[in-house]
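**Archive record**
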Amino acid sequence: MPFDIPVQHRLWVPKRVLATATALSWPGGEAMAERAAALGAEVVRLKGDRLTGLPESYKDAKSTLAIVVASPSKRRPQPIPPSADWRFDLAAGCPAHCQYCYLAGSLAGPPIVRAHANLPEILAELPPLLGQGRVTSTDPRRAGEGTTFEASCYTDPLGIEHLTGALAETVRFFGAWDAAVQLRFTTKYDGVAPLLGLPHGGRTRIRFSVSARAAERFEGGAPRMANRLAAMRQAALAGYRIGLTVAPIMPLPDWQSEYDRLLVDCAAALEGAPDPDLTVEMITHRFTAGSKEVLGGWYPGSALEMDEAQRARKLTKFGSAKFVFPRERMVELRTTIEASLARHLPGARRLYWT
């Protein structure tokens, strides 16, 4: 398959931007407002820091960007196993319309995108945590990654980078950090061009979210798989460390051959690139009662299977219940997909299956 991006996915432009007064006092916040206005968004400059006029409908919320300041508690990094030592948040909310959205049960309120303007304060929280994590900092199998910091727990930072500029600044920050550290983020988007020439120093891993072609119908507003793989090739050629986040894994029609084909295409996209230190994370589809209710409201009539009767009930470490595939199905999925991975990407490091 060709790996040049013939037409980049259309950039997300919010219809309305709500900018708080304190956010606008930061250079980053003012820059976001100006970028959004230049793209045609309506920018509302609030006189205070309370977000007012929030949309009630899903459609309007998904076309709204709020420029805010991360509070001290929001700036404090948190452990995030099994992905990384720590997570920090450049934003919360995502412009895509994925019918299985993992944020549906995690973020309260309307699904607007909230971008944090006080990036210098957010980044200042990271250096004291060097060497203190419990994932890569202590696991001999992953020690080469150094202390890892996840930036995409509650957003897709590449999907909003043309508005925020925060991801590029964070890549530069890690590139200049002369220590055993790594920035990690996952994306479904293809707008890697602003990152390709940055002095990343090999300290950023871009993980591309990929799945079988049949899953694309559940990923409204996100670039198609061909675009993601072309973007992955560009990033690998630019020397970035690369990761595959195969998610959500589902037993869709002809799933065995579809996931095999996906991994064939991933291998082809990385052919001839410098050693990308490829990692693979494999995440099966799951949902909670709360996320099912929210998603049912957002996407009525969706064909996505969320039938508790077909699932196994499993308790999380926080005591809440989630619904995963039964053990027999899980074993079948894992055995088949890991065999394909071994055939087509034998040098990849498998970080986890969940």
The mean pLDDT is 94. Residues 62 and 112 are 5 Å apart (CA to CA).
